[in-house]
Sugar-specific transcriptional regulator TrmB
Amino acid sequence: MSRVLERRKQYLRLMRQVTLEAGYFTVTDIAEATDTPRSTVQDWVNRLIEEGCVVLTEEQRGRHPARYAASSAMPESACRRVFTTIDGDQVEIYHECMSGGCAAFCEFHHARAGGALRSVHRDGTLLRERAFLGRRDVAVGLDPAPAVGIAGVLHEDGYIHQHIRCIGGPAYSLTDMLSLAEGVCGVTVHREGAVVEGEVITQALAYVAIGIDDTDTGTEGATFALALALLQHLANLEGVMPIGHRVAMLNPRLENPTAGNSCSYIELAVEPGQVPRVEEAAVRFVADEAASPEWGVAVRQGFRVPRDLRAYGRSVRESVVTRDAADATAERFGARLYGGRGAIGALAAVALVGLPHDVLLDPKRDVCIGWEPAG
């Protein structure tokens, strides 16, 4: 995100918050809260007045400063985060919303519209979509037509451009809210009658999956808890957007499993140049925090899982796999393994990326080798 856009977002958020709490704000209120010269804040107030985001409610009178108010007490954005990863000719779009209802609305209409999207699914307030690069036009309108659709996804100079067509509420989101979401670098819009068209620009980030296993013992630790802590730790690094955490069950018939033999993986969107640093930090964290000396970590880039890698994940759920087999599979598919025996299950976790929760958690469910997200 540009510095100007980020600064605008910071000032507007604070001005709206103070307006909600006190009914107005002054230049001094904002200057003290942001440790910024009053002249700079005044320039921003004037600019936001011109944009219609701020109104003057009381002129300056003697020693009494001018009072201002944010022009709307509505949420500044229902969109918390919007970011994207790229893997070959496909893009994954992640849209985290404040509301499960709003996320469900977008899931329904995006799926109905089709367009550039090949799959749409939602996990709580996180909408996750797989798209082809290119343009596939969509027609939006009143029911039964979709209210919003993604008509194109392009990759240019390290950025993803989503071309969106919408009407009604989604149009308000595009014009007034999306630019304030974390991860958005820019939004351009124009109207064609009742239809609003625009582009949402985000960085083309790298998708990174990190699997971990055998971090606990029979009396100490839990792999899922360490995975969650790892996700929080890495999310604080510059250039990292956390996506989520999954638990998968492996072969429950192995000797001496802990709690049924589960593993975990976490998903991250990472600036491409930061991937080695994130990987190093992940391995160091697990090595320091694991209760078991057999801890294992697997790291792989890319959200598309080849058939033979998926088959490895199925074999670990159904049989006993050696470390040599894990090493050979990792080398073939560009994954990197660290640690001891746990690397076998950690790679299995990475091989199971993207499967539905009910398949991940039930080792009796078959892992379909050619499975891809459904639309």
The chain has a mean pLDDT of 90. Residues 3-22 form the longest helix (20 residues). The first strand starts at residue 54 and ends at 58.
